[in-house]
Amino acid sequence: MRITKLETFLVKPRWLFLKMHTDEGLVGLGEPILEGRALTVAQAVAELEPYLIGKDPTSVIHHWQAMYKHAFYRGGPILTSALSGVEHALWDLAGKAAGLPIYKMLGGPLRQRIKMYAGCGGNTPEEAARNARERVARGFIALKTGVNGGRPARIVESPAFIERAVAQFAAMREAVGKDIDIAIDFHGAISPQTSALLIKALEPYQPMFIEEPVQCQNVDVLADLARKTHLPIATGERIFTKWGFREILEKRAASILQPDIAHCGGIFEGRIIAGMAESYYAAIAPHCPLGPIALAACIQLDASIPNFLAQEHASLGEGYLKQPFVLKDGYVDLPTAPGLG
């Protein structure tokens, strides 16, 4: 089997899908996307095509190493996102050729269903509480919200801002009870000074994790915040490849890593990152505010790692997949079809 053509497709609302064609008629799917940079990533994929044409797609790791290491300029959000989507398609073809889901090619599943979490928030504590109850009624057992203090946070915030932000989280906690996991994402948009105040104020409500309390590139400050709280710190959506995650683990800057399988280098790179994290007793909660192909890639990884925590998603594939994922009691079942499923 040989690769004959790569095609990319812009898909609303902000996604980029990839079809990798072969001379045997099998087609591999991938999602090479960086939020807000779909056209740029599409061009980066096109620049990988000359290398891939005529190659056997089942040599997934060899091709990844060649495309990454033979480039003088490597890494970063654009190039690694393009590489990630291409890697999805290579694995999809390898699985289809073997008649196996990707997770079976990675050693078999460690679980038969994948825990999902839903985004949730509101403009007021009342609205946030109502939305949280609605998500739980739909079957979710884990949620994630953001910081809402009524306005963008300043470098050092007032007690009133902290109280407003905590009141919203507290309203959600009261609305759904203590058995529902609720994480909170600072989006790297809060200063270290204000993040420290917010984390301390949130501790009584025990968030599942604090995501990106500061810019993820500031690893020393992230590590400082992690040492000051017993709450789990999470980061990783804007970190690329195993080399990017190494410093975070070595400095104990986070105990939950969130590689984005459409950005970090792909499924197998995510597996390597998970293995590194396991040696530091860190968990994996893949980032995925993207399309259903990216989610399918995440689920293949989630099934095959021992330290999986929960999976983010923006879409279960309704209107895009022939067989969308179905939420049941907070989980989706593993797909059993070959490749990405």
- What share of the residues does DSSP label as strand, in percent? 15-25%
Number of H/I helices? 11
CATH class type of the largest domain: Alpha Beta
Please tell me the CATH architecture of the largest domain by its name: Alpha-Beta Barrel
**Stretches with pLDDT under 50, minimum 5 residues:** none
Q: What is the name of the CATH topology of the largest domain?
A: TIM Barrel
Q: Rounded to an integer, what's the Rg over CA atoms? A: 20 Å
Q: Strand-and-helix sequence, N→C?
A: EEEHHHHEHEHEHEHEHEHEHEEE
Mean pLDDT, to the nearest integer, reads: 97
How many distinct beta strands?
13
Tally of discrete structural domains: 2
Instruction: Note the overall shape.
Output: globular
Give a verbal description of the structure.
It is built from eleven helices and 13 strands. The protein has 341 residues and is α/β, with parallel strands linked by helices. The chain has two domains: 3-98, Enolase-like, domain 1, CATH 3.30.390.10; 104-333, Alpha-Beta Barrel (TIM Barrel), CATH 3.20.20.120. Helix 5 (125-137) links the parallel strand 4 and strand 5. Helix 2 packs antiparallel against helix 3 (76-98), helix 5 (125-137) runs parallel beside helix 6 (159-176) and helix 9 (241-250) runs parallel beside helix 10 (267-279). The mean pLDDT is 97.
How do the strands and helices of this protein lay out in sequence?
Layout: E1 3-11, E2 15-22, E3 27-30, H1 38-52, H2 60-69, H3 76-98, H4 102-105, E4 113-119, H5 125-137, E5 142-146, H6 159-176, E6 181-185, H7 192-202, E7 210-211, H8 219-227, E8 233-235, H9 241-250, E9 256-257, H10 267-279, E10 283-284, H11 292-304, E11 311-312, E12 327-328, E13 331-333
Parallel strand pairs: 4-5, 4-11, 5-6, 6-7, 7-8, 8-9, 9-10
Antiparallel strand pairs: 1-2, 2-3, 4-13, 12-13
Helix pairs in contact: 1-3, 2-3, 5-6, 6-7, 9-10, 10-11
